[in-house]
Amino acid sequence: MGYYKIVSDEKQETVNKNSIRGLFARRNFKGVADALERKKTVDDLFLINKALTSHILGNYDVANEYYEKIKNDDMGFVNYLASCHRYFDYKKIGKIEPSGNRYQLAIQNNYFNYFASTNGIEDIDKKNIQLTIYTERILNDLYTKIGRPLQHAQNDILKSQYLQTVEIQKKKEVSNEKKKIGIFVTDIQRHKDSAMIFELVDCLKNYFEIVIYFNNIFANKLAKHFEDICTVRYVISLYYEEINNLIYDDNIDVLIDMGELGLRNNNIALCLIKNSIPLHKLLSLYPILLETDSYYPPESAVEKENFTCVIGDFRCLTDKELTHINSQIEGIIEFESHSLDEPVFMKNFERRLVYLGYDMNRIKLQPGILPFSKYMDHIRRCKSVVITSGTSYAELSEVLKSHVRIESISENSLIKKAYDVYHRDKDSNESNLKQGLIQYLDKCGVSELYKIKNKKSRIAYFEGGKELIISNTCNGDIVLLGG
Question: For residue 329, which of 385, 258, 379 has the smallest C-alpha distance?
Fold first, then answer.
């Protein structure tokens, strides 16, 4: 079985910086695509890498053309499975046996992600899965929604490996008169994560100097909104030491880690920063919610309809919770969720409702609604909402913004606390929470920052004694570079 470890590209990059391997290690996927265009030989490695880079850059029709040509190749199949997961298209792979694949750790990661996308938490709990840095993140994505303790063991192992190689060159204490707050951002494609950036910046911009570190290839459009408000840095192509040293040079007092729960997490780069606060910890203390006009679309007129909308990630729903909804809610019930985008999950979920005694004549299964303005109109149209265990923090804020009656609320402690605070006395509590957050950040102690030697560290994947160049998608899948 393979394994992951921290390696250095310091020597290799000196001579191979602009090779396809070097460009991919730096996550310069546009550079990889340009290099492939210059290649004259069309062989299996070319097809694998052409499909992979087209997939990562969002050219999905082109990617599928190349995946069709290489789908029986082991490395190609690892990447193809990641592509299928991104677009909820599992029908071509459901009967394939993964145990024969040469890249066992990668294929098991992606198959577990497939399983987690098509089954509920009770089935996932029964699954015997080897935890790695990547499967740990897949589980944490679910655990944070249902209030379970997060898994950190694998992440801690890699952090320890990284810290053993660090060579500190300088140390300084930072205490700016007007504090500088850094915000480290990863999974902006995931609406609930990108949503919180707006609220944090709106809450803090008049009190602190803000620097946002975007660790995502699709950050350009979102980042432009903030360029006139605060300093914006793009760190997607930087190694761990380079990210750390950029924060050192920026003299950051406090760093808010929005990537801590992200499936494309790079927070190993932050492990030397003393005043680094995970977003979920910050929200547990000060559950501010989205109220900013820059995020919410203008409200349009809607006509009320006689149905109750159940929202959240339905993978997190237990039989007990579903039975309670069936017994308590009268009339038409609509289950709306992006978990229903996947046809395999929708079919399994429908069977489950029948097994639990639901009258399917009063049930509607609705995949996630896009764009966001259309979703908000839809929520405001229903007579009431059920907020389930898998409801995200951003989804709760959307329901509160819609002013729709809430039938029942999740037992997730963060969701429940936020709801209780806002439901009791919204205007005064909101003001107090934001002032409390500002005071909390302002009172954070002196920041200790370290300048370290740039060894160009990254996570590498070893299988069969051979190192493979990897990256991972915002959905938590592994992708492999051919060659």
Answer: 385
